[in-house]
Specification:
six-stranded parallel β-sheet, six-stranded mixed β-sheet, single chain, alpha/beta
Length: 785
């Protein structure tokens, strides 16, 4: 985008001008970055030079008419040659005087130097009310010519057009009201042909009016919204330069004041550009831009009388560039440069076109006229939504591994886990719990208890259980000591019990923890570790099912207790583990996959072996429960034991073995889960996956999550474009976030933990970004319309 420079000159040609230069980095809506004040001295000689040139130029009018009527008659005329030479010489004098004035005035030097340092291809908006300054050929200032700068005029007094009645034109149409005024001695068909060939083929809807009555034109301006008002015919400017009129027909000459209210209505309804392809239109431009509260955004006029063949050439050159996509300034500049090639026949033809600009309005492109600012946003703002959502998603994917939003994601996981249907008791499991009453029972029976379960009680318990043929027995009680000598039968029996599994715990050098050794009587192949992975907030959400520990650890088994029990249970049915080519464990049709280093909503999983998300079956009883005393006194049903996985663990409050779960914060009370039930949950998860076909909780790939988050971010941006008002977007946004939560929860029930919080953040952030851009776009549209 070209830089915009605004040069304000306020004063009179004899006394001089106060000069102010403002520089903006972008368009007219960008804030002013630089403001420089200076002074431009008066120059009566320059005014005389202009009058002398104007006199010579106007003397060519009869020759222009003769040339149009009969070119051969005057081709070799000495009169023509002398007149053309005199005009060109006067033009050179005027151009030289203008450059000398602007380049040598010492009080104007600071502004001139700043213009010199502004680079090339900027836009200069000259603000002045002085009619003589408005007539000078500013495009011939060598500083601007060298910089290839576009020049336009503006009045000092201006205001933003009132857009209250703005009506969007039909889709894909530029609505042009084309007026052909009284056209004696004019070839108006050339203008009509240029408009129809170029504008008509480029999406214009042209309404022609040939020498209309003033009342008809007035009614036409009131009836509907127009984008462009075009006039071809005779026009002129008063001597003071601030009043213009058009010859509408043979009997009516109109000033802008005669059409004041109709034009004001047309401007309010979207009229953005007026083209007066007629003589001496600076007075018309001044009235439209600064008087009668009109403030028309853009006006293109001819500064002097126009040879009849020049006006259609200019119109064609301008439309070719404008429809091609050039800016309004650049299109007029290109047309002016092409007219320069005709100056052998029409001297100073390139001096004639002038753009008059309202400083509050960004000149529209042809595409903007055709589709309007709102329709233009159909392409620009959706693109902003896609790009913004992509960048927001990329930022989220970068910060997620840092754990910035992990607490929110884990809270969402916990909430989903609490919302899930309770699957109740797993009939394949039995938990034998050691309670405080069981401690007392053992003591009363004279069973010497070294810890929670005495040798005598363990021996009797195993006898009772084995009599009813359990599938597997897991002892979730640490026994890092040998069986006492008086229970040698138990010591001899433990190595031979193929369905009995004991536990140990690995050491942790980082916490200076030495670990817990397994029972010496149980062989390594029937040991399982009880180590778990606790999240930073103290909640157990992951299941460590396979790991390799340090060599000096007292626990050297690589399999968790729960996996050992599940494998033994499934092995009885002929379902043995297989290792896939990817190094994963396959049980029947189910594959136990380990969470990768990038684990979706987790910032990072630890390197403590193979992990999976712990899929809690229920917050309540996971299995049939029976106490030690009930087993030893035969107060249980044999069906509770037969073909089940039996876990033995301590539930007495005096022994600390509690874990926080996603259900812990489900009420005002802190409810934790005992370790033996945690292992039961893990066993149930594997059995349910293999036997019942239940999907193991899993995550999407990194690319899948990226696309999901990006899609929701894009949706948040697109909804801003659909919703007309902020509170509409807020309401629809809340509804869509509820839908997002619902979708994520439904998918969670199916076994997939997909991003909720990052998607919601992308949705809101993109919506805010696009909303901000839409606000800016609408602000520009208000100014532009």
């Amino acid at each position: 985008m070209k830089r915009l420079l605004t040069l304000r000159l306020d004063g009179e040609i004899e006394q001089g001008f106060d000069a102010t230069l403002e520089i903006r980095q972008g368009d007219i809506h960008s804030p002013s970055q630089t403001r420089i004040k200076g002074r431009l001295s008066g120059n009566r000689d320059l005014l005389n030079c202009y009058r002398h040139w104007q006199q010579r130029y106007l003397s060519l009018e009869m020759l222009f008419r003769a040339l149009s009527a009969n070119p051969e008659q005057v081709t070799n005329s000495s009169q023509r040659g002398e007149a053309f030479a005199a005009c060109r010489q006067a033009a050179e004098v005027l151009e030289g005087s203008l450059n000398h004035w602007l380049n040598t005035d010492p009080e104007f030097r600071s502004i001139r130097d700043k213009l010199l340092g502004s680079g090339k291809k900027f836009q200069l908006l000259l603000q002045t009310n002085n009619p003589w300054l408005r007539r000078f050929p500013w495009h011939r200032w060598d500083l601007l010519a060298e910089a290839q700068a576009d020049v336009a005029l503006s009045a000092i007094e201006y205001d933003c057009p009132n857009p209250v009645k703005r009506q969007i034109t039909p889709k894909g149409k530029v609505k042009i009201l084309a007026i052909l005024g009284q056209g004696a001695n004019l070839n108006q068909q050339a203008d009509q042909q240029a408009l129809e060939e170029l504008a008509g083929q480029a999406g214009a809807q042209i309404t022609w009016r040939q020498e209309p009555q003033a009342s008809e034109l007035n009614q036409q301006l009131w009836e509907q919204g127009w984008d462009i008002l075009f006039f071809a015919g005779h026009s002129g400017t008063s001597q003071e330069g601030q009043r213009g009129e058009i010859q509408l027909n043979q009997t009516e000459r109109l000033t802008i004041d005669d059409l004041r209210f109709a034009l004001k209505n047309a401007i309010a309804r979207g009229l953005q550009l007026a083209i007066f392809n007629s003589c001496d239109g600076l007075g018309l431009a001044y009235q439209l831009a600064a008087q009668q509260d009109l403030y028309l955004p853009q006006v293109i006029v001819m500064a002097e009388k126009v040879p009849d063949p020049v006006s259609p050439k200019f119109l064609r050159y301008f439309l070719e560039a404008y429809i091609r996509g050039e800016s309004l300034y650049s299109s007029v500049a290109e047309a002016r440069e092409k007219l320069h090639g005709w100056e052998q026949q029409y001297p100073c033809a390139s001096w004639l076109p002038v753009v008059c600009q309202n400083p509050t309005v960004q000149p529209p492109t042809w595409k903007e006229l055709r589709y309007g600012p709102i329709n233009q946003s159909r392409w620009q703002l959706p693109r902003t939504a896609v790009i913004a959502s992509f960048l927001v998603t990329l930022a989220l994917m970068v910060v997620r591994p840092l754990g910035v939003i992990q607490p929110w994601e884990l809270q969402a996981y916990d909430q989903f886990m609490r919302w899930r249907p309770d699957q109740g008791v797993d009939p394949r499991l039995l938990v034998v719990e050691i309670t405080e009453e069981d401690f007392q029972y053992q003591d009363d029976q004279g069973m010497k208890r070294k810890w929670s379960l005495s040798d005598a009680a363990l021996a009797q318990l195993l006898d009772k259980l084995q009599a009813h043929h359990p599938r597997a027995i897991g002892l979730d009680i640490y026994r890092d000591f040998p069986v006492s000598d008086e229970y040698q039968d138990l010591a001899d029996r433990l190595p031979r019990m193929d369905n009995f599994f004991a536990v140990c715990q690995a050491s942790n050098p980082t916490r200076n923890y030495g670990g817990i050794a397994p029972p010496p009587e149980v062989p390594p192949e029937r040991l399982g570790f009880t180590d778990v992975v606790i999240d930073s907030d103290g909640v157990l959400r992951r299941y460590l099912w396979y790991a390799t520990f340090n060599r000096d650890s007292p626990c050297q088994t690589e399999t968790s207790l729960s996996l050992q029990l599940a494998l033994h249970y499934l092995g009885a049915e002929g379902i043995d583990p297989k290792v896939t080519p990817e190094g994963e464990v396959q049980l029947g049709e189910t594959t136990l996959r380990s969470l990768p280093g990038y684990a979706g909503n987790y910032s990072a999983t630890s390197n403590a072996g193979y992990q999976m998300l712990l899929d809690y079956r229920t917050p309540g009883d996971i299995a049939q429960r029976v106490t030690l005393k009930q087993i030893l006194t035969d107060q249980f049903e044999p069906s509770w034991v037969k073909d089940r996985v039996v876990l033995i663990g301590v539930t007495a409050p005096s022994v600390q073995d509690d874990f926080s779960t996603p259900f812990t914060r489900n009420s005002n009370q802190t409810i934790e889960m005992r370790g033996v039930f945690i292992h039961a949950q893990m066993v149930s998860q594997i059995l349910s996956a293999v036997k019942d076909g239940q999907q193991l909780l899993w995550i999407w790939s990194e690319w899948g999550e990226f696309l999901w988050i990006w899609a929701w971010g894009s949706l948040g941006g697109f909804l801003v474009l659909v919703c007309k008002r902020l509170f509409h977007w807020v309401g629809v946004g809340i509804a869509n976030l509820a839908v997002l939560s619902g979708v994520c929860f439904v998918v969670f029930i199916q076994g997939w933990w997909i991003p909720l919080v990052p998607s919601g953040l992308a949705f809101v952030a993109t919506g805010m970004i696009v909303g901000y851009n839409r606000t800016l776009s609408m602000s520009c549209s208000v100014l532009g319309n």
